[in-house]
Design brief:
With 426 residues, the protein is of the alpha+beta class. It contains 13 helices and 20 strands. Helix 1 packs parallel to helix 4, helix 1 packs parallel to helix 8 and helix 8 runs antiparallel to helix 9. The structure holds flavin-adenine dinucleotide (FAD).
Length: 426
């Protein structure tokens, strides 16, 4: 099989939220960028669909927000839950100091397609689909590029910097020998779709009952549902059979009784194993990991996409200048970790707390849960709902796109035009 070699400024492994956003930002800043994505398209299993106010703010800073919001999406301004018999409102986004006071629910593939379409406007942006990174090029302990398996052979990408944005099972972090700290997760999630009907009533995001945790995301004409199970419990659930699983869903939301038969086989139920971990060091000479590759996030709070985007913004702000000059000093890579590590650690601490103090006990409960005091207070005093909204909607240390990248200076555009053929497309 033939081997081809191209050279680029920044080679990004993985076209998820972190990789596509970083690719777009660096291309906009005049850096030669090559993104390698192992799948043929962005259409695949559910991977989280929540675009939070912090990410919408970034889109606004880039002048992309109006165009982005033309894509089909649902806007959620409050988060409500049903705990036993009580329905409570837990978060209200309407007071956030951001352009958008809602979470946009949009399939992740639409979000990624949008970023890819925008990035393609820059001649110095190159996206290779069906390109799976399998090895790193190294010279004296410094990473100098990546090797990818492509449909017609092997692609060698020589680069000033390789960024591992290849998710929770990152090949880059393994190949670079970066050490992972596992924080553990007591649950896995089963995803499934059920049709939506006009008389389904006001959407309730989360439902908690004895031993059950169920989430329903309004996707216009269907519900994207998450059924939370104890870690490793999928085989036991399958052993009990599909009828028992359907009954469990009806018990937690009787409205769904007339459509659980849409779950025709276990093929309609996708298991997503939950991991929470982080790298001790996110970088070594010539390589940096961001997003889930640096810190796999729990689905709790639905913040993973947004953290990945925040990492991409911080990395682009710090690295665009050095990358335009050539290989990036390791001190600059350290700055990215320094900037993003504590917001990540804090968010993971919140997620682990909720997993162990709420999710795990609920999954073990035999009796109907009582609504915790904190949930009752949030429901009773609307002002308090601003705090969880801020945590979920903006996270810790929200990033802003640097003025240089925002402004897309004409001289950068002409530099792009001059240098854009350093990397060659297929
Ligand atoms: C069950 C579950 C539900 C979740 N729900 C939500 C939610 O609702 N909202 C939310 O914000 N977050 C959610 N998350 C977390 C979220 O999915 C991740 O945090 C987020 O997608 C991380 O983005 P990323 O770009 O770092 O990685 P990913 O989204 O994992 O993207 C990595 C990309 O790299 C590609 N890739 C992998 N290996 C290679 C390779 N060797 N070569 C080339 N390409 C490669 C993959 O195909 C993929 O496109 C959920 C997570 C789980 C487990």
């Amino acid at each position: 099989m033939p081997t081809r070699t191209v050279s680029t400024g920044c080679c990004i492994a993985g076209g998820g939220p972190a990789g596509m956003m970083l690719g777009y930002l660096l291309a906009r800043a005049g850096v030669e960028v090559t993104v390698l994505e192992k799948h043929a398209d962005f259409l695949r299993d559910f991977r989280g669909d929540t675009i939070h106010p912090s990410t919408l703010e970034i889109m606004g800073e880039l002048g992309l927000l109006d165009e982005f919001l033309k894509r089909p999406h649902q806007e959620v301004r409050q988060l409500t839950a049903q705990i036993g018999e009580d329905r409570v409102t837990l978060a209200d986004f309407s007071h956030l100091p951001t352009r958008c006071h809602f979470i946009a629910f949009m399939p992740q593939w639409d979000f990624l397609d949008f970023l890819a379409d925008q990035a393609r406007h820059f001649p110095n942006f190159h996206l290779y689909m069906q390109a799976e990174v399998t090895d790193l090029l190294q010279n004296d302990g410094t990473v100098t590029g990546a090797v990818a398996k492509v449909p017609d052979g092997t692609l060698r990408v020589q680069a000033d910097l390789v960024v591992g944005a290849d998710g929770r099972h990152s090949a880059v972090r393994d190949l670079a020998g970066l050490e992972v700290e596992d924080l553990g997760a007591p649950m896995d999630v089963l995803w499934l779709r059920l049709s939506k009907k006009p008389d389904d009533g006001t959407p309730v995001l989360g439902r908690i009952q004895a031993g059950k945790f169920f989430v329903m995301l309004d996707r216009g004409d269907y519900w994207q549902c998450a059924f939370v199970i104890p870690k490793g419990g999928f085989n036991e659930l399958r052993r009990r059979g599909l009828p028992a699983f359907r009954s469990a869903i009806v018990e937690i939301n009787p409205v769904l009784a007339d459509r659980v038969s849409e779950i025709a086989s276990w093929d309609d139920v996708k298991l997503l194993t939950v991991r929470v971990d982080r790298l001790k060091r996110w970088y070594k000479p010539g390589v940096l990991c961001i997003g889930d590759a640096a810190h796999a996030m729990s689905p709790v709070g639905g913040v993973g996409i947004n953290l990945a985007v925040q990492d991409a913004v911080a990395a682009a702000n710090i690295l665009a200048g050095p990358l335009r000059k050539g290989p990036v000093p390791v001190e600059d890579l350290a700055k990215v970790q320094k900037r993003r590590e504590w917001p990540t650690r804090l968010m993971q601490a919140v997620q682990v707390f909720i997993q162990t103090r709420i999710v795990k006990p609920v999954l073990a409960l035999q009796a109907q849960p009582r609504t915790p005091l904190v949930a009752r207070l949030l429901d009773r005093f609307p002002y308090l709902r601003r705090f969880p909204a801020r945590l979920v909607g903006m996270g810790f240390r929200p990033e802003h796109v640097s003025a240089e990248i925002r402004s897309q200076k004409p001289e950068i555009r002409s530099k792009i035009a001059e240098t854009s053929r350093r990397s060659s497309d297929f």
